[in-house]
Design goal:
The protein has one domain: Glutamine Phosphoribosylpyrophosphate, subunit 1, domain 1. It contains 5 helices and 13 strands. The protein has a 7-stranded antiparallel sheet with strand order 3-2-4-1-10-9-11, with helices on one face. A 6-stranded antiparallel sheet has the order 5-6-7-8-12-13, covered by helices on one side.
Length: 257
Amino acid sequence: MCELLGVTAKRKILMNELLVTFFSHSVDHRNGWGLAVLDTDPITIEREPVMALTSLYLKDRLLGTIETSKCIGHIRFATIGGDNIGNTHPFARYDISGRQWVLAHNGTIFESEALAPYRFVQEGSTDSERILLYIIDRMGETYRRKGDGLSADERIRIVEDTVQTIVPGNKVNLLIYDGELFYVHKNERGTLHQKELEEGMLFSTQPLTQDGWKEFPQNQLMVYRDGDLVYAGKKHDNTYVHNEERMKLLYLAYAGL
């Protein structure tokens, strides 16, 4: 699987040491790296379909100061889709109102009728990109019906309903940013942790420092604005439990064997 890193805070945080530790995990996640700095205008997204530890670009990038109040990082262990830029997280798209969305996913979609149609329109071939495309379409449908921009509450409801729709039978660990709100969800135990900072919140698949970490809430969408929790969603019962045989069948199906 993949690993996620996320920050939402009131003030900029020096991220270099945390990023060095995070990207060092790419020895076990070799299929690409990405970093979205979300408090720049425009948002800065850097990514390569190579192992982070072998990237000369990333090495030089980490030698410079990286300070941000909002970011999403990702290292990829591919389950679906080859090693190319179109399959490298984070993914970004604009909705019909001009709002930019950024998403990174750690998980696998084994089956989902809601996501299946996006196989034919996506740029890459990952199930993760299909999640973002589905969200963008849901935003567009509501926008056209309403005839105006969507409020924070409306966007939260759509993202939560999306999560509730796709989690049955699937692993759905997500970090999403919509230009204002930072959405976090996980449904496999032990696969996402959080640390409360003075400035805000830090999220990572694995703890990146020695202390202060606890497991992120299970099966519940949590939404933050500038480091503050603004919404705790309704808990669902769709805990994902890893099944090696099911993963093998997915690989075989994807390979056409």
